[in-house]
Amino acid sequence: DASTITSPLFINKWVDYSNKYGLGYQLSNGSIGVYFNDSTTLILSSDEYHFDYITQSEKSTFKRRSFTIERFPSDELDKKVYLLKYFKKYMIQNLFKAEAWSCNVDDFQLTGIKNMSFMTNYFRTKHAIIFRLSNQSVQFNFVDHCKLILSDNGRTVRFIDSKREFHTWSLGNALEPGLCDDDVSEKFKFAKEVLLSWADKMEPYT
Predict the structure, then answer these.
(1) Same fold for the domain at 11-107 and the one at 120-202?
(2) Based on the number of CB atoms within 10 Å of its own CB, is 10 exposed (0-12), middle (13-18) or buried (19 or more)?
(3) Between these two residues, 115 and 76, which has the higher pLDDT value?
(4) What is the CATH number assigned to the segment(s) 11-107?
(5) Tens digits of per-residue pLDDT, 17-66?
(6) pLDDT for residue 71 is more than 50
(7) Secondary structure letter of residue 4 according to DSSP
(8) pLDDT in tens, 183-199
(9) For the chain, which residues make up each domain, given as ranges?
(10) How far is CA 8 from the centre of its chain?
(11) In whole angstroms, how far apart are CA 71 and each of 68, 87, 114, 154, 183?
């Protein structure tokens, strides 16, 4: 039943500066992250004080270290923290205000600052940019500004249309003939094809 599905976590702002540094993004719970070109990540809590630094091994396992904006190893992270602040400022000043798409931050605060979700990788096609999050969600941002989010281990489908309206279905309902218009159905088909081709690269987050 889609009515019992919890608030989604997804990327509601992003800026690609991967030609130099990496990709910055904001999650719907208010946290800000940067996926750097060296495959490391900084994720800043919505309290704008605590952050995690996440590195990835060759076996696709992740190591997380937690710091605060005031206390971190400056010799290692000075530049990355500076870039995190830069991306944050840029997205606040220049990108669409996404409050209407966002989770209730009070719900996020209940989980504290431990084990914050973050983007583990992404790639582009001519039709969409695809993000994968550490909570196993996969998000498709299409060139027409629609978004498709698969979460709860693929059991929940969320779609944000070009009018920024939210639609949520269970996977079984989403696949029912006639439920969605042809354009949305084509996006589901595209997502399925991408996930099948990407399956070998999608090792579980540990």
Answers:
(1) yes
(2) buried
(3) 76
(4) 3.30.1120.30
(5) 999 999 999 998 889 999 999 999 999 999 999 999 999 877 678 999 99
(6) yes
(7) G
(8) 787 888 888 888 877 76
(9) 11-107, 120-202
(10) 10
(11) 5, 20, 17, 38, 49
User: Can you give the C-alpha Rg of the chain in angstroms?
Assistant: 17
What is the token pair recorded at 66?
A: 């937690």
Q: How many helices (H) and strands (E) does the chain have?
A: 4, 12
Contact 154, 145 (CB under 8 A): no
Residue 2 has pLDDT above 60, yes or no: no
Is the C-alpha dihedral spanning 158, 8, 202, 22 positive or negative?
A: positive
Q: Which two tokens stand for residue 197?
A: 């081709």
What b/e readout covers 13-32, taking b as 16+ CB neighbours within 10 angstroms? Answer: bbbeeeeebbbbbbbbbbbb
Supply 25's token pair.
């993004």
Q: What is the pLDDT of residue 199?
A: 64
Contact 126, 195 (CB under 8 A): no
For 120-202, the fitting CATH number among 2.60.40.3500, 3.20.20.300, 3.40.50.720, 3.30.1120.30 is 3.30.1120.30
Long-range CB contacts (within 8 A, 24+) of 33-38: 33/84, 33/118, 33/119, 34/80, 34/83, 34/84, 34/87, 35/118, 35/119, 35/121, 35/122, 36/80, 36/83
Provide the token pair at 73.
């190893």
What tokens appear for 4 in the block? 């019992």
